[in-house]
Amino acid sequence: MGTHKRELPPGTIRKEFHFEGNVQNIGFRFEVQSHSKPLGITGYAKNNDDGSVTAQLQGTEKNINKVIKSLQNIDRIQIDSMTEKEIPLDYNERDFYIMY
Predict the structure, then answer these.
(1) What is the largest CA-CA distance in the chain?
(2) Please, are residues 87 and 74 in contact by the beta-carbon 8 Å criterion?
(3) d(CA 50, CA 86)
(4) What stretch of H or E contains 23?
(5) pLDDT one-digit tens code per residue, 10-47
(6) Which of 44, 49, 72, 93 has the fewest Cβ atoms within 10 angstroms?
(7) What is the three-class DSSP state of 57?
(8) Set 6, 14, 29, 94: catalytic member
(9) Please, are residues 96 and 41 in contact by the beta-carbon 8 Å criterion?
(10) Number of CB atoms found within 10 A of residue 28's CB
(11) Cα–Cα distance between 92 and 100 in angstroms, integer?
């Protein structure tokens, strides 16, 4: 086993969010990325075929909540419903990226 688990900061969690509403073709994924990166949050955002967006964010709960709050305050983004669940940490991830 040559895998080295990266040390993650204490309090690191990973959540998967599912956003429905006017969340595609308006730069939503880029907004998630641009708000996450400065906070050291890793993860990804991707569009789903049904018009929704799935995002996984890994960081502290406080910072993850900050990102979600920022998204809710952007006028052109209309989140009609959002679900979230805590999921297992990813120790290898080092960046926040957009999946196509």
Answers:
(1) 48
(2) no
(3) 23
(4) none
(5) 999 999 999 999 999 999 999 999 999 999 999 999 99
(6) 49
(7) strand
(8) 29
(9) yes
(10) 24
(11) 20
Catalytically annotated residue among 14, 25, 47, 76: 47
Active site residue 29: yes
pLDDT per position as a tens digit, 42-99: 999 999 999 999 999 999 999 999 999 999 999 999 999 999 999 999 999 999 999 9
Q: Is the Cβ–Cβ distance between 58 and 41 less than 8 Å?
A: yes
- Shortest CA distance to 64 belongs to which of 10, 13, 1, 7? 13
Distances (CA, A) of 96 to 33, 50, 76: 6, 23, 22
